[in-house]
Amino acid sequence: MTPAKAKKTLIARRDELLGNLDRIEDQLDEPMPKDWEDAASERQEDEVLSALGHSDQAEIRRIDAALARIEAGEFGECVQCGKKIPEKRLELLPDTPFCANCAR
């Protein structure tokens, strides 16, 4: 995967995640129902949404780090051992900072 293709893929995914976070934030800002059963159900949904939001934020941080590696000319190099990350791995995980050996 070329750095230019990776950058395009990463930016598109980042935009998608930011949209998800906006929708999650909107849903979490909705007022709680007065009925206690509905409120309990809403609370459970809020906990799931919050967990999804944290997961999306973590992925955005990984994407931002990958974009920084692209700008630094270090994309595709393992940050731990310095070896080239195989193309297939980068195709599947364009934000990965590690080769398969170092990721273990």
Mean pLDDT: 89
Helix content percent band: 55-70%
The parts where pLDDT drops under 50 for at least 5 residues are none
Number of domains: 1
How many distinct helices? 4
Structural class: mainly alpha
Oligomer: single chain
Q: What are the secondary-structure elements, in order, as H or E?
A: HHHH
User: What composes the largest sheet?
Assistant: none
The backbone outline, from C-alpha atoms, is elongated
Which band does the percent of strand residues land in? under 5%
Gyration radius (Cα, Å) is: 18 Å
Number of strands: 0
Termini separation (Å)? 22 Å
Protein name: Dimethylmenaquinone methyltransferase
Pfam families: DksA-like_N, zf-dskA_traR
Keywords: Metal-binding, Methyltransferase, Transferase, Zinc, Zinc-finger
InterPro entries: DksA-like_N (IPR048487), DnaK_N (IPR037187), Znf_DskA_TraR (IPR000962)
Question: Which properties best describe this structure?
Answer:
104 residues, single chain, zinc ion binding, mainly alpha
Can you give a write-up of this model?
- GO terms for molecular function: methyltransferase activity; zinc ion binding.
- Residues 25-46 are annotated as: Disordered.
- A zinc finger (dksA C4-type) spans 78-102.
- It comes from Paracoccus sphaerophysae.
- Residues 73-104 form the Zinc finger DksA/TraR C4-type domain.
- It contains four helices and no strands.
- The model has no long low-confidence stretch (mean pLDDT 89).
- It has helices at 3-28, 36-71, 87-92, 100-103.
- The longest helix is centred in the middle third of the chain and has 36 residues, at 36-71.
- It has one domain (3-75).
- It is an all-alpha fold.
